[in-house]
Specification:
The radius of gyration is 44 Å and the shape is rod-shaped. It has 350 residues and is an alpha+beta fold. The structure holds 3,4-dihydroxyphenylalanine.
């Protein structure tokens, strides 16, 4: 077998065996490259006579054509094969259902805060805010809370700074009632405001957390009294719980800042392990309230001879839990996304 026939046979076999495009290109260089097997044979033409040259030349040309055709044929095959492989790997099943997307939920406190705001604004109350870090004066003294009151102890309250200034030590407010004093100092009567904000106490169990939220309301005018207080609170609770027949009980109580003072209860019953408000003869406490003590009006620089005030405070989480059946108070503040998925509200239902 001549050298040329050998080359043809081996090239055709190698091309046939080749299984990827890159190898095929390398093989092409091995055969037809500058120092390729085929090129080496062509170079030998120089040493031949004219006659041999033309014979050998046409033989060379036909072998070249055969090998080149085989290369082209294989190239087309491999290209198609590799394209198919790529398409298969990149296959997207457009009939597959989409992955569920976490859309986020509105926190129950935000929802309830908006509901409360709606109702109090409808009575002409405006919103007022106060600082989370208060002085002993605004949190206690101005509210007629005596020096020896247990709420003032380190055990019950988070003191921010041991050093005291003219207003006493600084602390995380234990209730939103100090906002009453700030509002009285900043406004002239008649005054009608409400506030919603965080408050802090050293407590932690299923029904107590070191931080929670309160709603505070105050109304000051020449002729306000307990009857106004009863109406505002009763109407608010009926609207909030969306229960016309909700029964509301004002139970005598004591707060240093109000005289008389009362705690507010709503009626409920438990049926089949579920709680129902506005039915039954059990009572659940939801608020504290009263007619402002003259000392509190004085702290707010309000003429206590001419004006009287009524005030009330609700726990926001308690209202939210009762209305929407949220069991453990601690869930509100633990930032567990699963809790919010369970108890949160969709953005589209408002
Ligand atoms: N500040 C009271 C508390 O945290 C709640 C309260 C009771 C607020 C009576 C009031 C009120 O405005 O009049 O327990």
């Amino acid at each position: 077998m001549s050298e040329l026939q050998n080359l043809e046979a081996s090239s055709l076999t190698e091309i046939g065996d080749c299984d990827d495009l890159e190898k095929l290109e390398r093989l092409r260089t091995v055969v037809f490259g500058k120092n390729g097997r085929f090129t080496k044979i062509v170079k030998k033409l120089c040493d031949l006579s004219e006659e041999q040259k033309s014979k050998f030349g046409s033989e060379i040309n036909s072998v070249k054509k055969v090998i080149e055709n085989k290369f082209s044929e294989k190239f087309v095959k491999l290209e198609a094969y590799e394209l198919n492989k790529k398409l298969e790997a990149e296959f997207v099943d457009i009939t597959m259902p989409a992955l569920p997307e976490l859309s986020g939920k509105i926190h129950p406190l935000t929802k309830v805060e908006e509901e409360v705001m709606d109702i109090f604004s409808s009575y002409g109350f405006t919103f007022a805010d106060g600082p989370d870090i208060e002085s002993e004066y605004f949190n206690f003294t101005a509210l007629n809370v005596p020096d020896h009151h247990p709420a003032r102890t380190m055990h019950d309250t988070f003191y921010v700074h041991k050093l005291a200034d003219a207003e006493g030590r600084k602390l995380l407010r234990t209730h939103t009632s100090p906002v009453e004093i700030h509002t009285m100092l900043a406004n002239k009567p008649p005054i009608r405001f409400f506030s919603i904000g965080r408050v802090y106490r050293s407590d932690y169990d299923v029904t107590h957390t070191p931080m929670f939220s309160q709603i505070e309301g105050i109304m000051i005018d020449e002729n306000v009294g307990f009857a106004d207080l009863k109406w505002v609170i009763s109407d608010f609770l009926k609207k909030f719980f969306q229960l016309k027949d909700l029964q509301i009980r004002f139970r005598p109580s004591f707060f240093p800042f109000t005289e008389p003072s009362a705690e507010v209860d709503i009626n409920y019953e438990i049926k089949g392990g579920k709680i129902f408000f506005g039915a039954g003869d059990k009572w659940m406490e939801v608020a504290g309230c009263g007619v402002l003590h003259p000392n509190v009006l004085k702290s707010g620089k309000v003429d206590s001879e001419k004006y009287r005030g009524i005030a009330f405070g609700f726990g926001l989480e308690r209202l939210a839990s009762l209305k929407y059946g949220i069991p453990d108070l601690r869930g509100y503040f633990e930032s567990d996304i699963r809790w919010r998925e369970t108890f949160g509200f969709s953005h589209f239902v408002r």
